[in-house]
Amino acid sequence: MFIQTESTPNPATLKFLPGKVVLDSGTADFRDADEAGKVSPLAAKLFEIPGVTGVFYGYDFVTITKDGPDWQHIKPAVLGTIMEHFMSGAPILSTGNDAAEDTGEEFFEAGDETIVATIKELLETRVRPAVAQDGGDITFRGFRDGKVFLHMKGACAGCPSSTATLKHGIQNLLKHFVPEVREVEAVL
């Protein structure tokens, strides 16, 4: 088994490509060991590596977020853990835990359904595939008074380039196609 790695715009994250499907559909984002331990045996093992602070699963990649140690110290342990897990044939998520699309509650005013549908379609077709290339994900959270609220995950969360991506890329795209959009803001 050969696992490729790719750097991302976020220096605190690294994308690992095991050459296999990680999640058939959806994404999963873990920000602490307790949460990971309940849902994903692989994420729980990855959090045992000193310095690992986040694990994100996409279709064919795992994005690791770290603090502290250099990648040269963490990377071999992450590679070994991912390889060992895939070689064992164990599932990525525990039984009964499907990929969490986004469990956050969406909010928008009644009557804005058409606007929200257009925003979601643009995110799905133009934004999410692009940010997945960088090991992250961005999902719709809400729309109110011309402001779109988005949830940033994986490499996008905490990325120094995320404000530029959000304001200059996504905001301009949404404003171009949806005149009702005035601003875009990231939420947790």
Q: What does this protein look like?
A:
The chain is an alpha+beta fold and 188 residues long. The strands form two sheets. The protein has a five-stranded antiparallel β-sheet with strand order 1-2-5-4-3. α4 crosses α5. The radius of gyration is 17 Å and the shape is elongated. The N and C termini lie far apart (36 Å). The model has no long low-confidence stretch (mean pLDDT 91).
Strand content range: 25-35%
Spell out the helices and strands N to C. Answer: EEEHHEEHEHEEHE
The biggest sheet amounts to: 5 strands, antiparallel
What are the segments in which pLDDT stays under 50 over at least 5 consecutive residues?
none
Structural class: alpha+beta
Main sheet strand line-up: 1-2-5-4-3
Overall mean pLDDT: 91
How many DSSP-defined strands? 9
Give the oligomeric state of the chains in this entry, treating copies of one chain as homo and distinct chains as hetero: single chain
Count of DSSP H/I helices: 5
